[in-house]
Amino acid sequence: MTDVAGVEQRWAAYFRWGPYGMLAAGTVLAAATVDAVGMSTVERYTAVVLVGAAVLLQLWWGRWSRGRPLAPSVPGACYYFVRWALAFVLTWCNPFFAFYGSAGFVGPERLLRGRPLMVGLVATAVILASSQAGGLPLHGPLDWALFGGLMCFYIVLLIVFGQLAGREEERTRIQTATITELERTNAALQQALDENAALHAQLLVQAREAGVADERRRLAAEIHDTIAQGLTGIIAQLQVVVNTPDADLAREHVARATDLARHSLGEARRSVHNLAPVALADAGLPEALKNTVAEWGERTGVRAEFTVTGTDEQLHEEIAATLLRIVQEALSNTARHAAAGRVGVTLSFLGDEAILDIRDDGRGFDPLAVPERTLPHSRLRSSGGTPIGGFGLDGMRARAERVAGSLTVESEPGHGTAVSARVPLVRHD
Questions:
Q1: Cis? peptide before 137, omega within 30° of 0
Q2: pTM
């Protein structure tokens, strides 16, 4: 854009001062050749008057065009043809005034357009051709032949340069249109970038909010799986103490309640630090599951067995914690609802998957009839007073899905329950 402005300034400077220089050159040469050309007294006075008129015309044009863009207009056309008329008469008086007439060939498209432009160029060619043919008026066939040949030459040049100018104008028009389109595209691209930046910021906020919500759900599940289950076990043991007259049995259940309290306290402290299960702090997943199943069996009096199949793998801590929490929740549900006489827990390592199965021979239920948890702290109860819903099935399923796994539940009333969790076998780093 700066280059375009510079070109326009140079053109404006030429139209303001260029004709003065051409008029001065023609005047000096004409004055030097007054006698050689044979100018009469009338032609001399006429030339002086017309030179003064040309100066006045240029002064008017400089004042009128100052601050205006150079573009074809009626005043511009009048200026061009009046200047041509003055140059034509001056060239009639002395052929060397053709220097002033040649100004019509420089930048005429900035003053004229269409048919007036062609007329102006041909008229300027007449001045130059007549000057080169010996001056006006023409004398004899030779002068006319020379004049005709020169006019043909100039007309051919005008046609050739006119076509070149047309192509250049078309190229300029295409470039201008391309630049305009690029500017529009750049503006649209910048707008899209701004919108993408705003969308990115919005997504970051949403992701942060989703992460906070997910962490809250995870913390709720952790509290439910650790402190809540531990307190439930303690209450169950203390209820036995309250209802039994046997002092030895009471002491046994008090000891169990104490152990559960210590275990729950350890879980709570570990949850505060990193929410990793205490059972996994010093043992691998198979050993942690074995101890969990054994302790649960001793506490509930239900026959519980744990089995490992496949090659034992050291799992990533998040995968191991997920499977342990699923077992703890499943066993807790079994103790509260199933009235089972036997429970089997199997951990299988199969290729790129770890599969956890928990089966019992309890009363079973209809999985489709279990309502979803609707309130974060509510516990729905069946007609018999048995709590259902809650964090149980939903919590186990959410844990499995959090590590790109899945959980299925198979159960029928009177035929026990089978819970199966499948998670990717991600090894410990």
A1: yes
A2: 0.42
Which strands form 342-350's sheet, in the order they lie side by side? Answer: 303-309, 342-350, 353-360, 417-424, 406-411
- Say if residue 273's pLDDT is above 60: no
Q: What is the distance between the alpha carbons of residues 372 and 388, in angstroms, rounded to a whole number? A: 9
Burial class (CB in 10 A: 0-12, 13-18, 19+), 143: middle
Tokens of 380: 């729905």
| Segment 151-181, tens digit of pLDDT | 888 888 878 876 776 677 788 788 888 898 8
Tokens of 295: 């302790």
Distance CA 300, CA 295 (A): 9
Mean pLDDT of 269-279: 57
Indicate the DSSP class of residue 114.
S
Q: How far is CA 240 from CA 228, 244, 255, 300, 332, in A?
A: 19, 6, 12, 11, 18
Interacting residues of 166 by C-beta distance below 8 A, sequence separation 6+ = none
φ/ψ of 378, rounded to 5, equals -95, 155
Asked if 349 and 313 count as a contact pair (C-beta separation under 8 A), the reply is yes
Q: CB–CB of 372/389 below 8 Å?
A: yes
Give the whole-angstrom CA distance, residue 245 versus residue 166. 116
Q: How far apart are CA 88 and CA 102, in angstroms?
A: 10
Sequence-separated (6 or more) residues with CB below 8 Å from residue 250: 240, 241, 244
C-alpha closest to that of 225 among 420, 366, 394, 354: 394
Instruction: Name the pLDDT band for 261 (thresholds 50, 70, 90).
Output: confident
Instruction: Give the separation between CA 34 and CA 42, rounded to whole angstroms.
Output: 12
What count of other Cβ atoms lies within 10 Å of the Cβ of residue 128? Answer: 21
pLDDT for 383-409, tens place per residue? 333 343 445 788 888 888 888 899 999
